What does this fold into?
Amino acid sequence: MILAGCDGDRTWRLQDYVARGGYSALRKILAEKIPQDAIIAELKTSVLRGRGGAGFPTGLKWSFMPRSFPGDKYLACNSDEGEPGTFKDRDILRYNPHSVIEGMAIAAYAMGAARGYNYIHGEIFETYSRFEEALAEAREAGFIGRNILGSDFSFELFAHHGYGAYICGEETALLESIEGKKGQPRFKPPFPASYGLYGKPTTINNTETFASVPFIMNMGGEAFLNLGKPNNGGMKLFSVSGHVNRPGNYEIPLGTPFAELLEMAGGMRGGRKIKAVIPGGSSAPVVPGGVMMDCTMDYDSISKAGSMLGSGAVIVMDETTCMVKALERLSYFYFEESCGQCTPCREGTGWLYRVVHRIEHGLGRPDDLDLLNSVTTNIMGRTICALGDAASMPVQSFVKHFGSEFEYHIENKKCLVPPEVQRAGSQIYVSPSC
Amino acid sequence: MLEIEIDGKQVQVNDGSTVIEAAAVAGSYIPHFCYHKKLSIAASCRMCLVQVEKAPKPLPACATPVTNGMKVWTHSELAVKAQKGVMEFLLINHPLDCPICDQGGECQLQDLAVGYGSTASRYQEEKRVVFNKNLGALVSTDMTRCINCTRCVRFTTEIAGEMELGQAFRGEHAEIMPFIEKTVDSELSGNIIDLCPVGALTSKPFRFAARTWELSRRKSVSPHDSLGANLIVQTKHDVVKRVLPFENEDVNECWLSDKDRFSYEALSSEQRLGAPMIRQGGQWKQVDWQAALEFVATGLRGVERDHGAASIGALASPHATVEELYLLQKLMRGLGSENIDFRLREVDFRADGKRAGAPWLGMPIAGVKDLTRLLVVGSFLRKDAPLLAQRVRQAAKKGLHVSAIGPNAEEWLLPVRNRALVAPSAMVATLGQVVVALAKEKGAEVSVALLGKLPETVSDEALAIAQSLASGRKVAVWLGNLAVQHARASELQMLAQEIARLTDGSFGFIGEAANSVGGYLAGAVPGAGGLNAAAMIEQPRAAYVTLNLEPDLDLANPAAAMAALDGAQLVVALTSFDSPSLRQVADVMLPIAPFTETSGTFVNCEGRAQSFTAVAKPFADVRPGWKVLRVLGNLLALEGFAHADSEAVRAEALAGDLASRLDNGVEGIVVSSATGPAGVLERVADVPIHFADPIARRAPSLQKTRDAAAPTARIAPATLAALGLAAGDRVRVAQGTASVELVAQADDGLAAGCVRVAAAHPSTAALGAMSGDLSVERA
Ligand SMILES: Cc1cc2nc3c(=O)[nH]c(=O)nc-3n(C[C@H](O)[C@H](O)[C@H](O)COP(=O)(O)O)c2cc1C
Ligand code: SF4
Ligand code: SF4
Ligand code: FES
It folds into this structure.
């Protein structure tokens, strides 16, 4: 859907997008003066759920915006994409940036926002430059700016790039960052819909969420929903990485069996056995490979398996993986990325990392697993933003599903997976089909 | 109103209350660190987590709004488990160095750790170390103890008005720090010491001086600015070790200015005068009280006999107590002299005899929050009245529009919407223009007394100010120190009165000192035929009695004052400090108690009489000023000096209804729209915050702050260029025959044609009046 037709040359150009049917949804809305409510109703029908991680129904979110509010209202697109394993928004911006622009313009129309910002991950500058180019094209063609397509609807859209802080992907930290402040999440309530950017009502959605909007408008909410399965509407991009033959982005209908996705990704590297999968980005609990093979890729099924669909980053690990080492890496990430504002996360992420680190390095103690569980319990649900939970869930799930590996480490001061096996697994492997 | 049940207790709270506020009403204590009632909500320490009905997770009480019918448990198993979890996190990286920490015994973390901490730590890793920061002369840091509650950061940003501290870096590396190479220079900086819940920020002057439990504490009142901040003075063995705010929502809230807080160091200064001294044959000699007082009585009677009582004058500090001022004027009047004044830096006394009552702020201090328009005329508001400025800053956030008229536009850290930046000589005309424009806006006539006396044309700035005032619902005009010390102060007063009339608002005086209102109420002003402070210098007296005065620093024209006193036959100085200028001009120095060693009363700018008692025994052979004056009265055989205690003096001085004695009304001043001659350089003199009185001047730590930097000759850039000078040049600043050498500094917050040279500082004491023309040339 979003990436359909994007395997050609220069698919990011405006003319290419228009040739693929782009901007027809915006055109239609403006020409037919489709009421705001109708657009939001269509979205509700589509059961489009936020693609940024939390999976919150987008139509419902849009309906929270006080449309009659007289002052400024803002729209923000979250292209910060800092979640380890996630690289879908990058490709949307690289290959189909106009879908995001059109989606945002429609959103602005539906919510009466006059200004929007796309907050783009700062490390891969290409995406930012390309989006700026696309903005220039869209402005030139009259798809954004004053009196869009001759209507009385005006919408200004700007790109804003971050500097690589994961926390700036949290929606309120993102707003702070746009305001020029240190990117730190705000306490909620108040929610952005009432007190957002510069204190004004603001709606924040993920890149993929916005990019889906024009397609929903074109095909209708019902059709979009039917692409997926009930309560899990539409197609979704999955960033598959790890020990597979063909890592990459795959856009598939929600509800597709995981096995099929794995198949698309070329299957397990070197034909090895699947050990574990993190199905929704590093913040989602890990799921044992066997359990995962029975799941379908949608919010409900993954949730039933004890994890989250999250951002759709599927990290596949084979039997050569040392789970302690993997968790050490993840814990280090959250330790480094905590904004430091609230006590449990500031102090707890470092504690978690240090305990996992010492287990990995043969210095674990018998009660360390209880300690890890207890520290995560003290963090979860007690912080300002979800990073605290995000740091805790991998720890809890790794210990839960692979506790024996941790115990082995603690008792024997070495890894259950022999070093030579680990080494073999980490060889750069070039798939024959590439 | 909202109904909420907290720990089984039903209470009603205002709409918009948070759970922590409601808990306070219900009498439930919720542990907290980052929450502070005067600061914005950070909700970051997470110590205040409580259980809320229907909420799956514990919620932070400080940030959770009360909803009707809410049920909260602050000590349920869920709540306490969460609170203990947070306490553990707070302690894992804390150094736990309580035995060597100045905060020990008064530490929120220590106290709460007793209730919520466990006996042993589960954290076995290396602890974090955070390097200390240099925040300046007043605040000491031990940043490893910091719990990142950000109260200090929010204080500097929100209350002091400038973000001088921030939380840099992320996660576990987060640190509180000032900007690179910067210190915390706010005149309110000491409050971060009180706010810091741990021992990360402590008082530099107090460091390691005493343990909190060794200190005895008493209430007192600040002797410095006109706000009259309420203090808790802490002493050990009769030596003041520390000063903290005593919370009084109507006066200082929970804050103190640094001057209020750190000036106590001067009380142990080596310059304290410990015994009476007499000059004999050019030599200063220590004598006993008996001898000294007899010397004074005989001397005064001698001058009276030889030259008449009118040849005796009394000059008193506006920082003296009501009791001292009252007895001094009674003594003078008993002797038959009407020459007494405490308005030492004023020069225009035309309003004397035409005033309806004692000049004051014209409104309660707490009323600032209700103002919608404020015009400040001639004030260094932020440094002259730091906590009043703070109130204006908060009110400005809620919609108060501030305008200013004067030669100075230094940073007040609050939005000044309209400003007329004019030389002192143009201030009367500018205020007159505001009156003209305001009358027009209001469609009203100006008062008869002003008819034909006001300017014909109105500047854009004056018009903007008038429009702002005209659109206000609650308007006030404040005359600052520069207006009071102005050569045409009474005309400014007449015009301010007119603005108040036209806007149905109030007008008044910010006040220079702790007793600027009290001095009037105590009668320390000349009566009919008496000489005011300026006249006593212009027409030198044969004898002077001075009360806590430093003649080279405290008067409008220090050079002339020194000359007048030097030429007198007898100068009796009642003083807490031995100072070189007194040694030069006085004949006898009587050591009197500073505010901490005597009982007394200050009447603050809003007319609030605040009495205090001694917090320590007098130093050496020092005696309370009021007692010295009473004995002198007795020795001089005057009537009515039989007071048993200071309360009796107070009762006599402040008899009747005080409020009815406060009145800014003035009649019969001739206002002119004249401005000064063009082309002359005019002096603008501020009294630097830490030089304003003898105590502050001698407080070593205050003297190390940026606010105590040596004065420069500040000149507007264009004027500086026109003079052919550059910033950094050494220049000779001359007033009449007197001159001093200073460094020139470009100051774009100064009206063209003005040179700002501070008064009350040794380096400028040789100069003359605080206003008038001067010349500047390269030295
Ligand atoms: C620590 C943290 C990081 C996040 N990073 C991202 C991100 O990089 N991109 C994103 O779209 N959402 C991210 N989110 C989720 C956003 O806060 C927010 O829920 C999302 O942008 C809403 O858009 P959606 O409803 O379209 O998913 C993050 C959340 C947290 C707590
Ligand atoms: S949970 Fe962590 S990242 Fe989120 S606000 Fe608290 S400290 Fe910052
Ligand atoms: S220095 Fe003190 S007040 Fe400032 S953040 Fe640290 S603990 Fe809080
Ligand atoms: S007091 Fe509520 S979170 Fe700090």
Remarks:
- The first strand of chain B starts at residue 2 and ends at 6.
